Amino acid sequence: MSILDSVGNTPLLELKKIAAELDGIKLLAKAEFCNPSGSVKDRAAKAMLLDGLRSKVLTKEKIVIDATSGNTGIAYAMMGAALGLAVVLYMPANANMERKGMIARYGAHIVETDPMESSDGAYLAAKNAYESRPERYFYPDQYNNPVNAQAHYESTGVEIWEQSAYSVTHFIAGMGTSGTFTGVSRRLKDYNSAIRTVAVQPDSPLHGIEGTKHMASSITPGIYDAGIVDTTALVSTEDAHAMTRRLAREEGLLAGISSGANVHAALALARALPRGSVVATVLCDTGARYLSDSFWEAS
């Protein structure tokens, strides 16, 4: 067994304290921080790397190159170390010390990009580097690679359905590449077309919800499927921070800021639903990679 074999099969937790105000409605959260590198991105990174190796597009002589805001990069770095692959990652220079430190400890190389251009700048820089030397690199291109969403269709969506005892009525989650949301939503709607899907986005182009995109002001990922979105929920950075603190202090779940955004939006959604509804969301990553952020100190 290798570290890659431990990806997936994460628990689906009921948030009983957060949802204590609800009457007859369950709020469930997929604890993706239980993946080996600490985030949901392990699933897509594993699928894309193994797909490259199977197709022989990725060989030990090539360097894995991609853009990241942190989580997919950490997953690539961990798996690259396990598989004996060199990894180069383009990421905004203002990514925090925890994420940069984890990537470096696995032996991957970081190329910092203009922080004002956010994840879009990192994406364009990685794409340009690949196109200048395509023979040198394997470029998974997580924003446009259908294997990303398919990984969640084949694993995350199946697990949520089975672990909920086939009872989910609503799925709500934020989007970075949109792989998790798209793949899980497709799978759940295949199980039951009546399931409603809600896409979470920051309420402003200038936000602090790491790993999520304000779609109207960003480069739209090629794997994003607007047709799978029933409705959209907007969340402020402040509300995401507040719920992230609540998850730690009330549920004992040290999760990241995008997890707080997801749970805040899920709770708001659940307040308007009838008894018997079951709302599922995703705790995307561990809060341990945000410990240097100041929002934890607020009351």
Automatic annotation (TrEMBL):
Query: Which PANTHER family would you find in this protein's record?
Result: CYSTATHIONINE BETA-SYNTHASE
List the InterPro entries.
Cys_Synth/Cystath_Beta-Synth, P-phosphate_BS, TrpB-like_PALP, TrpB-like_PALP_sf
Gene Ontology MF: a single term: cysteine synthase activity
| Name of protein | cysteine synthase
Q: What is its EC number?
A: 2.5.1.47
| Keyword annotations of the record | Amino-acid biosynthesis, Cysteine biosynthesis, Membrane, Pyridoxal phosphate, Transferase, Transmembrane, Transmembrane helix
Q: Which organism is it from?
A: Candidatus Desulfovibrio kirbyi
Any keyword Lipoprotein?
no
Task: Output the PROSITE patterns linked to this UniProt entry.
Answer: CYS_SYNTHASE
Which cofactors does this gene product need? pyridoxal 5'-phosphate
**One Gene Ontology term from the biological process aspect of the record:** cysteine biosynthetic process from serine
Q: Which reaction does it catalyse?
A: O-acetyl-L-serine + hydrogen sulfide = L-cysteine + acetate
Q: Where is the Tryptophan synthase beta chain-like PALP domain?
A: 4-285
What protein family is recorded?
Belongs to the cysteine synthase/cystathionine beta-synthase family.
Q: Where are the transmembrane segments?
A: 74-93
Q: Give any Pfam family that matches.
A: PALP
